[in-house]
User: Which sequence fits this backbone?
């Protein structure tokens, strides 16, 4: 049920599986990849197969996926005919702007600092935190409004923000 003044929570009967994409070369190199893509590592290839099997065996009514390749490939393996797959742009990772593709050391050398909490750009030229938060809230609404089991294949930043949203945690908590 709903309590006065609080957001609607996921119903007790609804099940949502949140899946982060498999390991990529950029992940292994500790590079920020938001709107860009990076191929899977050998471990990532094995994770893709394992995730696809897990999702398929769980048998969701809908498989939502970010449009980025590192998530789409999992959805394609989990639902080969794409009969239950829906691309949801709101599940796309943060746009890191000038920090895209950089390591933490490379960012520091260029004087770039990430700002996840002010609502302004996450990094120079990047997506605004307020826009990212609105996208994640929209994704949360789509997931909770979909009847039956739902799988959502997305990214670390989106998964963190979804959990913080549903658990009613402060934004800063999503990044710790």
Assistant:
């Amino acid at each position: 049920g709903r309590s006065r003044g609080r957001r609607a929570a996921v119903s007790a009967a609804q099940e949502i599986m949140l899946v982060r994409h498999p390991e990529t070369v950029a992940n292994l190199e500790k590079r920020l990849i938001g709107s860009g893509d990076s191929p899977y590592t050998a471990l990532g290839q094995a994770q893709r197969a394992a995730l696809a099997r897990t999702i398929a065996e769980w048998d969701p009514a809908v498989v939502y996926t970010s449009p980025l390749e590192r998530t789409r490939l999992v959805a394609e393996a989990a639902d080969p005919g794409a009969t239950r797959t829906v691309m949801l742009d709101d599940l796309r990772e943060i746009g890191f702007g000038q920090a895209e593709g950089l390591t933490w050391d490379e960012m520091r050398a260029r004087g770039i600092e990430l700002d996840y909490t002010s609502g302004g750009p996450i990094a120079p030229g990047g997506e605004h935190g307020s826009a990212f938060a609105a996208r994640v809230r929209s994704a949360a609404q789509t997931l909770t409004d979909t009847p039956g089991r739902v799988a959502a294949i997305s990214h670390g930043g989106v998964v963190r923000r979804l959990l913080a949203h549903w658990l009613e945690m402060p934004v800063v908590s999503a990044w710790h």
Remarks:
- Residues 52 and 77 are 5 Å apart (CA to CA).
- The longest helix spans residues 42-58.
- The first strand starts at residue 16 and ends at 20.
